[in-house]
Design brief:
alpha+beta, eight-stranded antiparallel beta sheet, three-stranded antiparallel beta sheet, 40% helix
């Protein structure tokens, strides 16, 4: 009975301390919107514009960004079709880092056409396709048939391989809420910014915040566990509570032994 009581107390304590730690995610979401698309992102994320291109990531991760969402649009050319995008995502590629290290990408899912809010997109997941050790999900389309000019649109949702599972629900929510906006107005803005050739600024920004050649986890902070101060505090509280329960169990055993000794006498 003592053992059962101890286990019951332990699991009650575990449910109070650790389950909220592992499963409670911020529920607040906001709608990100530019000239050509909109989708939902967490309330703690911020987005920075580069002409008609955008980069979104957690505003609390300035130096070591674990995940980001980028959106890009261009005036569609002869090679900008969903079929071409699909064929591109079906291929793996080779590229070089700043240190001249050769990296080969790897397909994690087979590219396919999907319908998001009744509009067709192509969808595929690759690893090491943009930055080493990052998994990137690509969602692209060409819009729209009834427009005098068409836009090629690409949304890239990337996270470090160690954290992709954590950010996957955020990515899924963004993709499921993805909507194409007023393309006629967006075409004017995209054409203007393409003439200004501002797209390279976004590439530089992404390289800076990801720190391609640097580890994303600061191994010297929080014992290398990559925990926030709040999570670390909860973990310590849990360990203290567990130690207390083990000590209580030991005392109960001691009392039982003393009672048995008295009965024998």
């Amino acid at each position: 009975m003592v053992r059962f009581s101890f286990l019951k107390s332990f699991f009650q304590l575990f449910s109070l301390i650790f389950i909220p730690l592992f499963f409670c995610q911020p529920l607040q979401a906001k709608l990100f919107k530019n000239s050509y698309v909109s989708f939902e992102i967490p309330d703690s994320w911020k987005c920075k514009p580069f002409g008609t291109n955008w980069v979104c990531h957690d505003k609390f991760q300035e130096k070591k960004v674990e995940a980001l969402i980028t959106s890009t649009a261009k005036i569609a050319g002869s090679l900008d079709t969903r079929e071409q995008y699909l064929n591109y995502l079906k291929r793996e590629k080779t590229w070089y880092t700043n240190k001249k290290e050769q990296i080969s990408s790897k397909k994690l899912t087979e590219a396919k056409e999907v319908f998001l809010n009744k509009y067709p997109w192509v969808d595929g997941v690759h690893k090491n396709s943009e930055v080493k050790s990052y998994i990137s999900r690509y969602v692209g389309t060409v819009c729209c048939k009834d427009s005098s000019s068409q836009l090629g649109i690409l949304i890239v949702l990337s996270a470090h391989e160690d954290h992709y599972t954590k950010y996957s629900p955020i990515f899924i929510k963004a993709i499921n809420s993805l909507r194409v906006l007023d393309i006629e107005k967006a075409v004017v803005k995209v054409r203007t910014h393409e003439a200004m050739n501002r797209s390279d600024d976004m590439t530089d920004y992404i390289g800076e915040i990801l720190g391609e050649e640097k580890p994303l986890i600061d191994e010297d902070s929080f014992l290398g566990l990559n925990l926030s101060p709040t999570s670390l505090a909860l973990l310590i509280m849990g360990l203290i509570a567990l130690s207390f329960l083990l000590l209580l169990r030991k005392k109960r055993k001691g009392k039982k032994k003393r009672k048995r000794g008295r009965r024998k006498k």
